[in-house]
Amino acid sequence: MTDKVKVIIANDQNEVKIPTGVRMLIRRCCHAVLAGENFSGSAEISVTFVDDERIRELNRQYRNIDKSTDVLSFPLGIDGVYDINNDTGAQMLGDIVISMQHAVEQAKLYGHSLQREVGFLTVHSMLHLLGYDHEAGGLEMVRMREKEEAALTQLGLGRGASYYMDDEA
Predict the structure, then answer these.
(1) What is the pLDDT of residues 3-57, one digit of tens each?
(2) Confidence at residue 10, expressed as pLDDT on a 0 to 100 scale
(3) Which stretches of the chain are assigned E, i.e. beta strand?
(4) Cα dihedral sign for 44, 117, 23, 150?
């Protein structure tokens, strides 16, 4: 059972107004993924809202992909071993960076709320922070999708339609 989860949320963009309740939703998403993975101990996660220009810079800098994307995950752990915050003893899982402009576009594209899109992006990234990867496709991608759906369904954000946008789309 997870002891304490600290989710640090920052808004570093001015393009999209952050709807009421989104910060609580992000915290609930982080908790749901950790509970679903039977994560034990305390954890810290950082979530930052940025604009398309900033996420494009980060994507270019860290992935050599010169285009904006919806979300980037920066795990701090390797094979389930994480850096520890010396002040709190919490495992630092990593950073999630969400392009709010992209989230708005994708919510419109898939016909659901911005909250649902941000929830999906948070769950998706949390799984990346915990070591899951869908980039190669196959079974690992299927397992990740199943875990995303389980967490979203638990949060009342179950699938009404496919709402993951592949990077190549």
Answers:
(1) 799 999 999 999 999 998 999 999 999 999 999 999 999 999 999 999 999 999 9
(2) 97
(3) 2-11, 41-50, 71-75, 83-84, 91-99
(4) negative
DSSP character string of 124-141: HHHHHHTT---TT-HHHH
On whether residue 135 sits in a domain, the answer given is: yes
Encoded tokens for 136: 């190669």
Can you read off the two tokens belonging to residue 64? 């050599």
Residue span of the structural domain in which 146 resides = 2-154
Structure tokens at 66: 């010169």
Q: How far apart are CA 146 and CA 13, in angstroms?
A: 31
Q: What b-and-e string marks burial along 117-140, b requiring 16 or more CB atoms within 10 Å of the CB?
A: bbbbbbbbbbbbbbebebeeeeee
- Distance of alpha carbon 161 from alpha carbon 138, whole angstroms: 21
Q: What CATH number does the domain containing 139 carry?
A: 3.40.390.30
Is residue 54 in a domain?
yes
Q: Considering only CA atoms, which of 59, 132, 142 is closest in space to residue 102?
A: 59
d(CA 117, CA 107): 6
Distance CA 134, CA 132 (A): 7
pLDDT at 166 over 60: no
Contact 79, 131 (CB under 8 A): yes
The amino acid at 110: Y
